[in-house]
Amino acid sequence: MDKSYQVKRITNLYQSCNECGLPIINCICNKSVPVCTKAKLWILSSEREFYRPSNTARLLRLINPDSTEIFLWERTKSPKQLIDYISMEKYATFVLFPTENEKLENEKLENRKVEFKRTDRITAFIILDGTWKEARKIFRKSDFLKGLPVASLEPNYASNYDLRRGAVEGNLCTIEAAIEILKITGEIGPAQNIEDYYKLFLKSYRAGANGHELKG
Ligand SMILES: [Zn+2]
C-alpha cells in the first residue's frame, strides 16, 4: 500500500488517513505501541483492499512495521519480492488459508495442512487479504503458493470484526488472524499489544463512520 492509493472515506465529513484508514479526526497512527514480532507476517492483498478503510493489514503494519510487509496480488504479475522470500532458506514459510468449510471440498488441501512446529528458521506466514472470495481466488491462482504448507487456525474466540457486510461467520479478519498466529507461535505480549490497538481501531472506526470524534 503506497501513496498512490487513497483510502476511501467512511464519512463525507472527513478524509480518511492513508496510513490507518480512519477519518482524520480519529487517526490513530500515533497511538500505537510498536512491536517487532519474531514471526514475519507477509500479507498478499487484493488491490481493492488498498482502498478499503476497513482493511486491517495496514493497521498491522503500523504497529509491527519491521515484521509486516504487504504485497499486491495481481493476476498477470507475480509478487517478485515475496517469491524471493519464499525461496530463502532462512525462512520457514506457511500459508494461512481461511479454512473452515474448505475441508469438505478439497482433500488435497487437507493433506497440506500442518501443525505449526518451531524450527531454528525464521517463521513466516503468508496471510491472504481480501474478502473471502478474493482470498480464495488468490490462493487458487498463485502457483508460488502451491508447494507451501498450509497452517490452519482454529480460533477460540469469535471474530469482533463487524465492519463489513456479508462476512462469513467464523472467519477472522487479517489482523485477527495475525493475532491468533502470534499466540500459536508463543508471542503473547506482542499479540496483546496488537489486539489492544485493533480494539481502538474498531471503536474509532465506528465513531468515525458517524462523523464523531472518539473521546477518551
Ligand atoms: Zn492515521
TrEMBL record:
Its EC number is 2.5.1.25. Pfam families: DTW (PF03942). Keywords: S-adenosyl-L-methionine, Transferase, tRNA processing. Residues 13-210 form the DTW domain. InterPro entries: DTW, DTWD2/TAPT. GO terms for biological process: tRNA processing. It comes from Candidatus Desulfosporosinus infrequens. This is tRNA-uridine aminocarboxypropyltransferase. It is an enzyme of class 2 (transferase). GO terms for molecular function: tRNA-uridine aminocarboxypropyltransferase activity.
